Amino acid sequence: MKKCIAIPILLLSIFLKGQQPTQTTTMDSIHLNEVTLKANAILGSKFEAKNRTGSAFYISPKEIKKFNYTDINRTLRGVPGVNVYEEDGFGLRPNISLRGTSPERSSKITLMEDGVLIAPAPYSAPSAYYFPTIGRMQAVEILKGSSQVQYGPYTTGGALNMISTEVPDSFGIFLNSSFGSFNSGRIHTQVGDTKKNFGYAIEYLNYNSNGFKDLDNGENTGFDKNDLVAKFRVNSNADAKVPQSVELKFQYSNEDSNETYLGLTETDFSLNPFRRYAGSQRDEMNTEHLQFMLTHVLGLGKNTSLTTTAYLNDFNRNWYKVDNVTVNGERQSIANIIENPVDLQAYYDVISGNSNTTNNDVIAVKANNREYLSTGIQTKLNHRWSTSSSVHDFELGMRYHYDDEDRFQWVDDYGITNGIMELVTNRLAGTDANRISDARAFSTYTLYKLKYKNLTLTPGIRYENIQLGRTDYGSSDPERSGTNISTRENKVDVFIPGIGFNYNFDNVSLFGGIHKGFSPPSNQVGEKPEESVNYELGTRFTYSGLSGELVGFYNDYSNLLGSDLAATGGTGSLDQFNAGEVIVQGIEVLLNYDLSSSNTNISIPITLGYTFTDTEFQNSFGSENDIWGTVSKGDELPYLSKHQLNAAASIEYKKFEVHLNGRFNGAFRTKAGTGSIPANEKVDSNIVLDLGTKFRYNDHITITANAMNLLDERYAVARVPAGLRPGMPFGVFGGLELRY
């Protein structure tokens, strides 16, 4: 199959090479000088993305502002190789996959903000219950494919780095305010300046909504989120012999969202996909996130730099949500009730508010109360030199990291009468899950980059030493006295090599590589990590105004790990299990063309992106807790669309901008299988169109108007955690931007 993917790419490269006109405009990525990367960036520009030896994508500040999205799912739509499934409709807790990695809670990709790991506990509990607010980001970088050794620990699919607003070069103030459907509001303001030796940037963002779902008792189903970021930088004079700078970043955010795990049955979804059952009226997520980053950049001569960052992320959250129902002393999970509403009619009647509870009936609401800590220090040394025919770049990086997840949970019991829930039993904190999982990790890498004429090679290797542990105090010891304590530990040592290449012709480049994929195991004793060998081969081209990229990838898993997440219908233990050998392969296509390339007054860029992802288990097994179901050899992985297509078109003329984006997301299965997807295991395909417009009244005032889901498509985005869940319906939002 690797040959099948490689052949069309090679043929296209040869065709384009042979079709060169006598006078061509060469690719801008060939003869430009090397771009100096910033301390918080992977790529830093589209130029670097085009010259990477592996597949990479850079979403620029201009592209981010086209639609003023606060939803990362929508922001990533145009990136080939990215597979997402939604959950809440607003992108608060996304499920992101890169090249077929398991998308659940984005836990199998390396997530970063400003080059620092940003998942709540990246090693011990990486599920992204916290995700940075995309509305305050300046740029987004996506790295896939070969030579990922710089960014770990998750190296199979790739890395996603979000770059927050940087300290400006001169004084500026910005205000963006909008309001629209579902009583959704947003206010975003920034101020910053740079003097000779000092710079600062202060930013605040609030966005909120009443939600688009209809709770049976009429209460709010929306959210309110605040985000504050401050940066302060001190730097030496520009002509200093040893130039250096120190930047302190502070970030605080909180969120109150009336979100639930409880979805809808097939019948109820068909009647009203936006209904919320009365049994979820007490569900609420409360979070706080605090970050400190201190970054020091030291220039050691013209061609050498040393960048060191110390960081601390503290995240607290309590998701108070319905978990199970007891009728006549027998308990059923909400997932079972929604999947079998006829067989479990009495339970369904309670949770939907159709009947009242009695003394032997109860709705259990679990307080998933957890605190996460992620802290460490990382440094990288970069040295660059050149000869008359070659350019050399050597990078050495190290990181020491500690993280933990502290679960201190409890379960309260409620009754329901005439659709209103009332507290029956209020239990003590720590009487449910009562344990701490932790991880200590030392990692280091070296990457060497050689440019010789038109050829670039980047061999590298990463080393990870990880100690994973768990201390369980038990539900009978909420004081944590240690009377019934149990512990376990797992250790991992791994080398992760990779090599990539890129060869430039006049208007075509050929790139590819091979690297080892890795994902850490859990703290279960003796559990092995997820490992794979990953290949890619691609071409980038520019011809007669058409530019683009075509890539084939092939990921050969020797040991795929699945995770027991409540978000995907499991028990929520986070224990991992061995899914054995799996093949994930596919093709990514990206095409860009400007219909008005000869007209300097108007720009009409068109972009088309397509991703084909094919997966296949190479062995049979039965996963515990019905997470993936019973798996047979030849089955496909769940939660991954085989076909994804994104098309975008814009018209930019003087003071006006109009942007249209369309996304086709193919159907996917929610349990492993092959052939046609059973109706009760299928999430149907959908097409969603978004529109963004801007009118610049003058240099300081811009009026914006956006429409989401123009066709008012009513579609399901998932069947997990417990039942069908809808995407956002048609919505209109208007706003005003002030900039000085």
What can you see in these coordinates?
Mean pLDDT is 90; it is low at 1-37. It is built from 8 helices and 41 strands. The strands form 7 sheets. It has a 22-stranded antiparallel β-barrel. Strand 24 and strand 25 (508-519) form a beta hairpin. The longest helix is centred in the first third of the chain and has 17 residues, at 2-18. It has 740 residues and is mainly β.
Short description:
With 740 residues, the protein is mostly beta strands. 7% of the residues lie in helices and 53% in strands.
Task: Quickly list its features.
740 residues, mainly beta, globular, disordered N terminus
Derived structural class: mainly beta
What general outline do the C-alpha atoms trace? globular
Uncertain stretches? 1-37
Oligomeric assembly: single chain
Question: What about the largest sheet?
Answer: 22 strands, antiparallel, barrel
Distance between the termini: 56 Å
Tell me the Rg in angstroms. 26 Å
Strand content: over 45%
Measured as a percent range, the helix fraction is under 10%
Q: Mean pLDDT score, rounded? A: 90
Number of strands: 41
Number of helices: 8
InterPro entries: Beta-barrel_TonB, Beta-barrel_TonB_sf, Plug_dom, Plug_dom_sf, TonB-dep_rcpt-like
Protein name: TonB-dependent receptor
Signal peptide: 1-18
Membrane topology: Multi-pass membrane protein
What is the topological layout?
Elements: H1 2-18, H2 28-31, H3 46-51, E1 56-59, H4 61-64, H5 72-75, E2 82-85, E3 95-98, E4 110-113, E5 116-117, E6 137-144, E7 158-164, E8 172-180, E9 184-194, E10 198-209, E11 214-215, E12 223-235, E13 244-257, H6 266-271, E14 275-276, E15 284-299, E16 304-327, E17 330-333, H7 334-339, H8 345-351, E18 362-386, E19 390-408, E20 410-417, E21 420-425, E22 434-452, E23 455-472, E24 486-504, E25 508-519, E26 530-543, E27 546-563, E28 576-594, E29 602-603, E30 605-617, E31 621-622, E32 630-631, E33 643-653, E34 656-665, E35 668-669, E36 682-683, E37 686-696, E38 701-708, E39 716-718, E40 725-726, E41 731-739
Parallel strand pairs: 4-7, 11-14
Antiparallel strand pairs: 1-6, 2-3, 4-5, 6-7, 8-9, 8-41, 9-10, 10-12, 12-13, 13-15, 15-16, 16-17, 16-18, 18-19, 18-20, 19-22, 20-21, 22-23, 23-24, 24-25, 25-26, 26-27, 27-28, 28-30, 29-33, 30-33, 31-32, 33-34, 34-37, 35-36, 37-38, 38-41, 39-40
Domain TonB-dependent receptor plug: 52-159
Main location: membrane
Subcellular location: Cell outer membrane
